[in-house]
Amino acid sequence: MEKVIPIGEGFAITSQLDPEDLRAAAAAGFRSVISNRPDDEEPGQPSAAEIEQAAAAAGLAFAHLPVSSRDIALEDARAMRGALDRLPGPILAYCRTGARSQAMHTAATSLNSQAKRYDVVIVGGGSAGIACAASILKRRPDISLAIIEPSETHYYQPGWTLVGAGVFQPEATRRPMASVIPKGAEWLRQEALALHPDEQAVELADGSRIAYRGLVVAAGIKLDWNAIPGLAGTLGEHGVTSNYRYDLAPYTRDLVQTLRNGVALFTQPPMPIKCAGAPQKAMYLSCHAWEREDCLGAIDVEFHNAGAALFGVADYVPALMRYIERYGIDLRLGSTLIEVDGPGRRAVFRQGAGERSQTCERRFDMLHAVPPQVAPDFIANSALADATGFVAVDPATLAHPRWPNVFALGDVAGTSNAKTAAAARKQAPVVAVNLLAVLDSTLPWATYDGYGSCPLTVERGRIVLAEFGYGGKLLPSFPSWLLDGRRPTRRAWFLKDRLLPPIYWRGMLKGREWLAAPGRRDDEQ
Q1: Which domain-ending residue is among 347, 374, 401?
Q2: 99/148 same-domain check
Q3: CA-based torsion, 368, 241, 364, 256: positive or negative
Q4: Looking at the annotation, which residues are catalytic?
């Protein structure tokens, strides 16, 4: 190994390394090596792969960031900045003479001086992002943490079902975003434009970047209203509504109160969707209201569900089917809404799949529509996304498989659990403790079991409380003698109506982890 030249704290440069030099580098106290030299610049030059193999044998981390000149491009500087932040120090970088490594360090350092840096950056100020921020700050109040969220209002979305039923007032489900940002967090009021995990940076809508040591992605899910031709343009009129929007849930209530005969259609798109039970919750509560007004017999109710089953966990289906039969609902499985003509009061469905599928046109007086749902565009287009467009994570630790300092939770996480606020409540402490462990250079230890909860409001005053985890395993929070979630109970309604809103606002968003303490991997063995 040729002469080693210290450049800055924890960083030094040297000329071309040979594989046998790596043990000497480790003995000198270095913990990482960066190669800034392209392969095959000259005959006999060791390849980056050879150096990486020797580095691993010596217990050193390695990164290959080749550049051809000392005129460093912006993207190369950002990649070097990410490596300097990610790799354990001290770091030894090399090229042919060391000059390009020094130029890369200078460019990366200059870049870092222009970008504000936080210990933790959270993308998204919904239930998952705020709860996770609160859990992190509860454990480490002095950490620097930023929340990227453009909205000025925070919504309690589980309450919109009850707004549509006339139980809650819409104003009870919203609060100023400033009131829920945890103490100690900095609120960045703009959109995230792009994620750059190699550089440990987030690009904001104004073109600026912020740097992080740890990233939490809690960007939610995109309701793709435009995916169904005609739907977006007729929402809120012509009898077309949806409890999936704050401004439309009151229209659902008004439609139910005025409809006394005709056809009412309720739809559910293919998975994944936010709160898979919400489409039928709206239907059951509407039917119960019509039943109490003694006009249900004059209304033809159809449930067009794109899935193959009424509900994804079989244990809850018998109780739900009894309400399907009680209300006289025409259950149509494998039926997907594909077009809406609001002024003409006409909906088109695709029934079945493949070559045997066919279209069916239905007239309606009321249509409760739920749109397809996908990952936000900037997530789907990022390196963090899996094949579905959502953030790839380990289903237990919620850490990204490629970038261990990146985590995701809530609707944007590519996990198989139900996408509900209850899932985010359980995930938030898991991400909090695991992210802090990674920042402390230790391994994540907390695990998420896939818990999700769906309070299925089958009538006003009774709920089937579905609680389950990965693989449909039942995960009840209460003993069956107190509350059996497989049958409709008034206790579950009291929980939904009276207890869950204050638990959300005063507990979950404040980092209070009632019935949500993270479990360890060892607990499962």
Answers
A1: 374
A2: no
A3: positive
A4: 275, 454
192, 378 in Cβ contact below 8 A?
yes
Show the CA angle centred on residue 318, arms to residues 265 and 425, nearest 5°: 80
Q: Say whether both 100 and 123 belong to one domain.
A: no
Q: Beta strand 174-176 with 330-333: parallel, antiparallel or unpaired?
A: unpaired
Task: Choose one of 320, 352, 374: the last residue of a domain.
Answer: 374
CA distance 459 to 296: 13
Query: Whole-angstrom Cα distance, residue 425 to residue 432?
Result: 12
pLDDT (tens digit, 9 = 90+) per residue, 306-351?
A: 999 999 999 999 999 999 999 999 999 999 999 999 999 999 999 9
For the chain, first and last CA: distance in Å? 47
pTM here? 0.80
Cross-strand bridge partners of residue 413: 391
Reported as a single tens digit per residue, the pLDDT across 136-177 is 999 999 999 999 999 999 999 999 999 999 999 999 999 999
pLDDT digits (tens, 9 = 90+) for 411-440: 999 999 999 999 999 999 999 999 999 999
DSSP-derived 3-state class of residue 252: helix
196: CATH: 3.50.50.60
Pairwise CA distance, residues 138 & 226, whole Å: 40
| Domain carrying residue 249 | 225-374
Both 32 and 164 in one domain: the answer is: no
- CATH of residue 75's domain is 3.90.190.10
| Burial of 75 (C-beta count, 10 Å sphere; 0-12/13-18/19+) | exposed
Are 174 and 246 within 8 A, CB to CB? yes
Instruction: Output phi, psi for 336, to 5 deg.
Output: -115, 125
d(CA 366, CA 301): 10
> Taking Cα atoms as reference points, which of 211, 176, 178, 209 lies closest to residue 192?
209
Tally of domains within the chain: 3
Secondary structure letter of residue 478 according to DSSP:
S
- Four-point Cα dihedral 517, 518, 521, 523, nearest 10: 10
Spatial separation of the C-alpha atoms in residues 18 and 86, rounded to whole Å: 24
Q: 169 and 252 share a domain? A: no
